[in-house]
Write a structure and sequence with these properties.
binds phosphoric acid mono(formamide)ester; Rossmann fold; 2 domains; alpha/beta; single chain
Length: 306
């Protein structure tokens, strides 16, 4: 049974094929209207979400399938103590594929070990978020024309930001990507990403604190929210939450061709005055998320023989 728990579960060629398929669906959605007729997607969200859950559900509906699930642990039998393994074994009796978000790192992996249907990790704690990465890659490729040879600034909460961890894992497999990691000292990348992924890949990377100093070098700027829900105390969150606020004045030294991405939700990190700047890609990025999830559902169902 094929699952998607970590972006590295997909070979680079498979990622490119998924992005090609997502572009094809984007161009001709009418060709896919019946592709998942009689199929069901279960969305098991033990943690809040707007984009990921709703884009998965919209994706399955636009493929002609149906959706079921829950959007908070409190409305499932997890609140009575049921394990994620038992939950997915049961949900596998009702659905053909499962997208799961959970606050505990590794929960989707644990679930996948007992599941009879494909499990998609829709975000596990501060660990990974592989379908956001497919979304980010589709956005970069469409905006910049390639996944190779550019400098990306990753800015904000690099410690708890699971989208950053998965995106780094994916981009280290591309050619000539240079990483500039911009964060306060307390929110630097975890060692397992810096050492085991970035350093091991041989990619060029730097860690800095000042966004303004590196702005002119960047081809892509990936802004992130400080992840309040992962902090152990509110005091630290309040001290760090406004470390970086992107404003039109700060963009004056940026390239005209810069692509500004953000996985969203945004809190304060990007001034809304930037939303109408052609370099702001984050709402297009949210749209692309539906198309990569359509492509992923098709791939996993096909491989599962469904
Ligand atoms: N980008 C993202 O995961 O957003 P949601 O938390 O709204 O799903």
């Amino acid at each position: 049974m094929r699952h998607l728990i970590d972006i590295r579960d997909l070979a680079q060629g498979e990622i490119v094929s998924l992005l090609d398929l997502a572009d094809g669906i984007f161009a001709h959605p009418e060709d896919y209207r019946e592709a998942c007729r009689y199929k069901k997607l279960a969305t098991l969200f033990f943690e809040p979400s707007t984009r990921t859950r709703l884009s998965f559900e919209a994706a399955m509906m636009e493929l002609g399938g149906k959706v079921l699930g829950f959007s908070e642990a409190a409305s499932s039998s997890a609140s009575k103590g049921e394990s994620v393994s038992d939950t997915v074994r049961v949900v596998g009796c009702y659905a053909d594929v499962i997208a799961m978000r959970h606050p505990k790192e590794g929960a989707p992996l644990a679930a996948s070990l007992r599941s009879t249907v494909p499990i998609i990790n829709a975000g596990d704690g501060g660990h990974n978020h592989p379908t956001q990465t497919l979304t980010d890659l589709m956005t970069i490729r469409r905006e910049k024309g390639s996944l190779d040879n550019f400098t990306i600034g990753l800015c904000g909460d690099l410690k708890f930001g699971r989208t950053v961890h998965s995106l780094i894992a994916a981009l280290t497999r591309c050619e000539g990507v240079r990483f500039v990691c911009i964060s306060p000292e307390e929110l630097r990348l975890p060692g397992y990403v810096r050492q085991d992924v970035l350093a091991k890949s041989g990619a060029q990377f730097a860690e800095v604190r000042d966004l303004a100093e590196v702005m002119p070098e960047l081809d892509v700027l990936y802004m992130t929210r400080v992840q309040r829900e992962r902090f152990f105390n509110e005091e630290d969150y309040l001290r760090l939450k406004d470390s970086y606020i992107l404003t039109p004045a700060k963009l004056e030294s940026a390239k005209r061709s810069l692509a500004i991405l953000h996985p969203l939700p945004r809190v304060n990190e990007i001034d809304t005055a930037i939303d109408d700047d052609p370099r702001a890609c984050y709402f297009r990025q949210a749209l692309y998320g539906k198309f990569v999830r359509m492509a992923l559902i098709l791939k996993l169902l096909e491989e599962a023989g469904k």
